[in-house]
Amino acid sequence: MSDPLDLKRVDHVRMFVGNARQSAYFYRNAFGFQVAAYAGLETGLRHEAAYVLRQGKITIVLASPLSGDHPEANRLIRHGDGVQTIALEVGDVPAAYEAAISRGAVSAAPPTSVEDDNGVYVSAQIRAYGDTTHTFVDRSRYRGVFAPGYRPLDADRYSPRTFHDVGLRAIDHIVANVEEGQMGAWVEYYGKVMGFSTLVSFDDKDISTEYSALMSKVVADGRGRIKFPINEPAKGKRRSQIEEFLSFYDGPGVQHIALATGDIVKSVRAMAANDVSFLKVPGSYYELLPERVGAIDEDITELAELGILVDRDDEGYLLQIFTKPVADRPTLFFEIIQRRGARSFGKGNFKALFESIEREQSRRGTL
């Protein structure tokens, strides 16, 4: 597979939220992130406040407008809290940007170099689905805590107690929901612009319940470090989870972020103790589990207690669990995943998982 942009990894995910300070408190206390840096009025940033959260190799930036004049202020009215940009580390930002534009990408911001005492930070942006963007980042000449304008957290500004890492280590994949009929176009876009290939496809026979269905394709870079599943709704008797998302987010966007852990039992137990709400499947799921997935190292009784799902492919098995939406709108949520050799995405769990989601939709009156 080609790699026209010289992509390295997901550098960070930037979320635009209603109150970055309160969101930082939530993700620190619930998900175990360290609040590592801040940008805002005290650092010379006049239009927004932003907090940098870190755990393992995961970096999430939470940003909020400081006035209605912020160019993205209306995003909150339209979408609520959500992912604004998925930043990708590249070796050469201008070269990656020019290659992307020449292959059909639409510019959101040209290459820009920003310098402070810690060096030079280079970035550029292209547009993706909806008003989501991809930011190309080169921090090879930057030694600061995150980027110019950001400083290590000042205790006078925000002084939380010691955070408790829950064992989350990396971004495994980031899932997009797009309108019906648009999945193929975005798969083609990532192939043409970024050199991604289709890793796996699921149709409405793979992902369906009595009431609803969806289709999904997973695109990935040549190294397999960056994986983007893309979902679209399929015809069903009732409103699918994808249609619910598109309605409340008011368009396509990031549905969930999958965070990898080396010990999912430990991570989920810690997060549950922090009041993170997870989707649960019926107990009958675990009665059939040994026959479906074979021998695993984990205690099935413990998995059932926590609601952790298991699936197997030709290379091993994986364990996964999904949070409920992290805001009042039924939009963004998180997946916690541990891979024990498996490279797939839990096809054997789809029916049980989506029936669980439909139960939540029914409670909300949106099914």
- From the alpha carbons, calculate the radius of gyration and give it in angstroms: 20 Å
Query: What overall geometry do the principal axes of the alpha carbons give?
Result: globular
Question: Helical element count?
Answer: 10
Q: What percent strand?
A: 35-45%
Question: Taking strands numbered 1, 2, ... along the chain, how are they ordered across the largest sheet?
Answer: 6-7-8-5-1-4-3-2-9
Q: How much helicity do the residues have?
A: 10-25%
- What is the straight-line distance between the termini? 41 Å
Please write out the topology.
Layout: E1 7-16, H1 20-31, E2 34-39, E3 48-55, E4 58-65, H2 73-79, E5 82-90, H3 93-102, E6 107-116, E7 119-127, E8 133-138, E9 151-152, E10 168-177, H4 183-194, E11 197-202, E12 213-220, E13 227-234, H5 241-249, E14 253-261, H6 264-273, H7 284-287, H8 289-293, H9 300-306, E15 309-313, E16 316-322, E17 333-340, H10 350-364
Short description:
The protein is of the alpha+beta class. The chain contains ten helices and 17 strands. The protein folds into two domains: 146 residues, Roll (2,3-Dihydroxybiphenyl 1,2-Dioxygenase, domain 1), CATH 3.10.180; 197 residues, 2,3-Dihydroxybiphenyl 1,2-Dioxygenase, domain 1.
